[in-house]
Amino acid sequence: MRSHLRTIIVLALAAGLVGLFLYKVDLLRVAAEIARARPEWLALSLATMIVNLAIRAFRWQYLLEPLGHTTFARAFRATAVGFAANSVLPARAGEVIRPYFLARTDRAHGRMSATGAFATIILERLLDVITVLVLLASYVFVFGRDLRLTNPIAVTWLKGIGGVAAAVAFGALAILFVLAGDPARLGRATERLARVVPSFAAVIARVAEKFAQGLAAIRRPGRLLVALAWSFPLWLSIAVGIWAVAVAFRLTVPFTGSFVVIALLVLGVAVPTPGAIGGFHAAFRYSATAFFGAPDAAAVGAAIVLHLVSIGPSLLLGLMFAAQEGLNVTGMRRLADEQRHTA
């Protein structure tokens, strides 16, 4: 019953966001804008999506090393499966499926802990937020001088959002650093707290300890800095992909302006709809029109094409890799539900 209610809420949310995205839009003009988009720039954008998927896999492999060795190929396959699951299932289910899929395929090579691997994904997200905030700050304070003159209210708004997000990200990083300091002690403390439910005490303690072990990279500042350094080519490749679509649709978005678009897209994809449908599109349309004066029809067309380009490679590759392991979409949904109930 709870699952059905959650599905209804997610679908209603997606429908509302799509309605907001298409509000007062001339669909015939949107179709015309898509038809006249420059294909060579769309091809460039598509290529960058494959590149950033590969960089994500390499960075994840690097963060996983303290837990045990895994190959780039296995990290890449699990990353693609996770992003494919995010595209077809609600509530970012791929973030739960990705570590389990890696542990499942890596079992014969070192028994990677799914709980520990999941902890590295949380660390990945914090590194992503920090990188996006640095890029946003570089535009607001360095590259976006024209925007500060023409739209000071928008700049103030961006500074406020960036400040709050930075405080949350660095606060979460500090908490994770404390948790990672002594995995065994965390397990003992959790076990004491779990004595109110004795039947689950040992399980809770074991999961907490493995989770803290998964944060081993935080205990090595050099490794954490290297992972952060890899986050910049990752997000710059995403920026190139966004900018290439903007050029394809003849939008006046400079390359550095894509840093603003990225920041708003991060907020849009946080809405837990399958494939970020609605949230992604509304965020791109708003950023392109409000900050860069893009025509509405062109912005809507670009948002639709960028979304397809963004999820296309990981969706096709991920479904293929999952099928090779006997896992279909229904199996992914069941797996995500099982892992959430176990957590």
Plain-language structure description:
The chain is mainly α and 343 residues long. The chain has a domain at 28-115 and 221-342. It has helices at residues 2-21, 27-35, 39-64, 72-88, 94-105, 114-143, 145-150, 152-181, 183-193, 198-213, 221-248, 258-269, 279-292, 296-324, 329-342. The longest helix has 30 residues, at 114-143. The two termini are 20 Å apart.
Task: Please describe the structure with a list of short key phrases separated by commas or semicolons.
343 residues; mainly alpha; 80% helix; globular
Unreliable runs: none
Q: Which overall shape is indicated by the principal axes computed on the Cα atoms?
A: globular
Our Rg estimate from Cα atoms comes to: 21 Å
For the secondary structure, the number of strands is 0
